[in-house]
């Protein structure tokens, strides 16, 4: 699958994307993690702005955000939130002047298919000395309960070559090979919540696992349906589990 098919898939899921991934509440949480690490006096470049939901929350916190994304369907929603401050662009070929960016962010971008090396090539190019790139990975720290084990197995089957890995163990060496320094994790946000296996199965039906997997189409649908059946076969599928997870920001800096 190439970039064109990935764009088409994100165009298709755009109307339901936010609701299936935590909505405004989660976006506000992400913005709250990023904001303390950003200089409000300088503009922010949001690479992979998507529907603009996180950028809109950053704007509400007093930041000037400009966003780029490859999916016109996602950007149609972003324009409703951010107006003309968004544009169609590839994260691997940023239409941005060399050395012109003080701070850039990406939320849930690097798991979704772009070539990590090319993205970091571009970030290293557009950042000015002292600039920083803040990344919230989709992986984070995920629950390891019985639901988590079943869902983790689905992720492995949908991504057999582990191309969607976006944690520091994957990205730090790539960034550092391009002259960026990995400064570590910041703004870690642990969360505890309750969810039943039936609730997770319902979320899978609602599109939680759509978008830019290596395995797609009918085969992906079959794997998701098998996972739903496994979830509903767990002991006490209607009993809520206490689940723990954490999101965090990875900080990359240009010396």
Q: Explain this structure to me?
A:
The protein has 255 residues and is an alpha/beta fold. The protein is built from nine helices and seven strands, in the order ααβαβαββαβααβααβ. The chain has a domain at 3-142 and 162-190 and 246-253: Vaccinia Virus protein VP39 (Rossmann fold, 3-Layer(aba) Sandwich). The chain has helices at 3-20, 23-34, 53-60, 72-82, 116-126, 146-158, 168-177, 197-205, 217-232; strands spanning 44-47, 65-69, 86-88, 101-107, 127-136, 181-195, 241-253. α8 (197-205) runs antiparallel to α9.
Topology diagram in text:
Layout: H1 3-20, H2 23-34, E1 44-47, H3 53-60, E2 65-69, H4 72-82, E3 86-88, E4 101-107, H5 116-126, E5 127-136, H6 146-158, H7 168-177, E6 181-195, H8 197-205, H9 217-232, E7 241-253
Parallel strand pairs: 1-2, 1-4, 2-3, 4-5
Antiparallel strand pairs: 5-7, 6-7
Helix pairs in contact: 1-4, 2-3, 6-9, 8-9
């Amino acid at each position: 699958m190439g970039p064109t098919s990935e764009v088409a898939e994100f165009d298709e899921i755009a109307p339901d994307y936010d609701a299936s991934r935590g909505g405004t509440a989660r976006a506000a949480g992400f913005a709250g993690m990023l904001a303390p690490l950003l200089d409000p006096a300088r503009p922010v470049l949001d690479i992979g702005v998507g529907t603009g939901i996180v950028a809109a929350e950053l704007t509400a916190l007093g930041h000037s955000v400009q966003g780029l994304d490859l999916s016109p369907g996602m950007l149609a929603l972003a324009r409703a939130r951010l107006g003309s401050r968004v544009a169609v662009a590839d994260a691997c070929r940023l239409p941005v002047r060399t050395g012109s960016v003080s701070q850039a962010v990406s939320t849930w971008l690097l798991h979704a298919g772009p070539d990590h090396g090319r993205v970091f090539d571009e970030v290293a190019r557009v950042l000015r000395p002292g600039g920083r790139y803040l990344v919230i990975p989709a992986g984070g720290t995920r629950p390891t309960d019985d639901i988590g084990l079943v869902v983790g197995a689905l992720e492995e089957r949908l991504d057999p070559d582990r191309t969607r890995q976006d944690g520091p163990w994957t990205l730090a060496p790539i960034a550092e090979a391009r002259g960026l320094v990995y400064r570590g994790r910041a703004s870690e946000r642990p969360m505890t919540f309750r969810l039943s296996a039936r609730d997770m199965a319902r979320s899978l039906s609602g599109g939680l696992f759509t978008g830019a997997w290596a395995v797609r189409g009918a085969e992906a649908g079959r794997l998701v349906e098998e996972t739903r059946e496994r979830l509903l076969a767990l002991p006490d599928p209607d009993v809520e589990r206490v689940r723990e997870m954490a999101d965090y920001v990875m900080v990359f800096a240009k010396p």
